[in-house]
Write a structure and sequence with these properties.
By secondary structure, the protein is mostly helical. The chain has one domain: Ferritin, CATH 1.20.1260. The protein contains ten helices and no strands. The longest helix has 29 residues.
Length: 257
């Protein structure tokens, strides 16, 4: 079983395998066992000064906005997903997003925030909130292509990129929590790119429409990137590279201006 490679399967069997609950369980078990709230047992806190602690709390509040958006989006999309594979995958994603939200809220309590959920709206980035509202409007309209693009390509790329960069510079506990979350985000992003890529290949009308959606959301996304990277202490020299990761992800789908 250790040598099993799902890429050797035909397309139908591959989808059955990698979009299944069984595959999800095998994927997450290795980095969830013995890690309550995403934190390895016995990992000690590093001292943070007041300014660093405040920046980290603001960052975690915005991470919670993103995770709540993905939780609401994925759960809402199950009802109008186009096939069984997508429904099952989204069900695993709902569990992932709920866990991410929980670990970030718990991390804020570790940092001394008595009521994290009350703190989130006070510190939420305005551009991220506008992005959330637009994404959830696609879900409410039962617009599969736009909702999947906004959630599993744009939002997941943004989280994968920012969380990964933050993990490299964060205190040990926050870094460990983020490392586990990033592994999930890559899987979510892969689903979005693969599902849309299959459909857009022979559907120029949908490609044109999603290019317009991308143009609408670009500025919100890039502004959110700038804010998140400043809060997490990513060096200025690295920030353009992180934004480029997002642009490359949407361009892989052929959604160029």
């Amino acid at each position: 079983m250790d040598d099993f490679d799902p890429h050797q399967l035909d397309e139908a069997a591959f989808r059955d395998e990698v979009l299944s609950f069984e595959f999800w369980f095998q994927a997450v078990d290795g980095y969830l066992s013995d890690r309550p709230y995403g934190r390895p047992a016995g990992l000690a806190e590093e001292p943070l000064d007041d300014e660093a602690r405040d920046r980290l709390i603001t960052t975690l509040c915005n991470y919670c906005v993103g995770e709540t958006t993905a939780l609401d989006g994925a759960s809402g999309m199950i009802d109008f997903a186009p096939n069984r594979h997508a429904k099952i995958f989204l069900a695993t994603q709902v569990v992932d997003e709920a866990r991410h939200l929980e670990v970030f809220l718990h991390r804020m309590r570790d940092l001394g925030v008595d009521d994290p959920e009350a703190e989130i709206p006070l510190r939420a980035d305005a551009n991220l909130v506008r992005f959330r509202d637009r994404l959830l409007s696609f879900v409410a309209a039962r617009d599969w292509d736009a909702a999947l693009f906004a959630q599993n390509v744009i939002l997941e790329t943004m989280e994968y990129t920012v969380f990964g960069a933050h993990a490299r510079s964060a205190d040990a506990v926050t870094g460990a929590v983020l490392d586990g979350v990033v592994k999930d985000e890559r899987r979510h992003l892969g689903f979005g790119e693969n599902d849309l890529g299959d459909r857009l290949r022979d559907d120029p009308a949908t490609r044109d429409r999603l290019t317009e959606v991308r143009q609408e959301l670009d500025q919100l996304v890039l502004s959110t990137f700038d804010s998140a990277q400043a809060q997490t202490g990513v060096p200025t020299s690295d920030r353009s590279g992180l934004g480029r990761d997002y642009l490359q992800a949407v361009e892989r789908l052929g959604l160029t201006r």
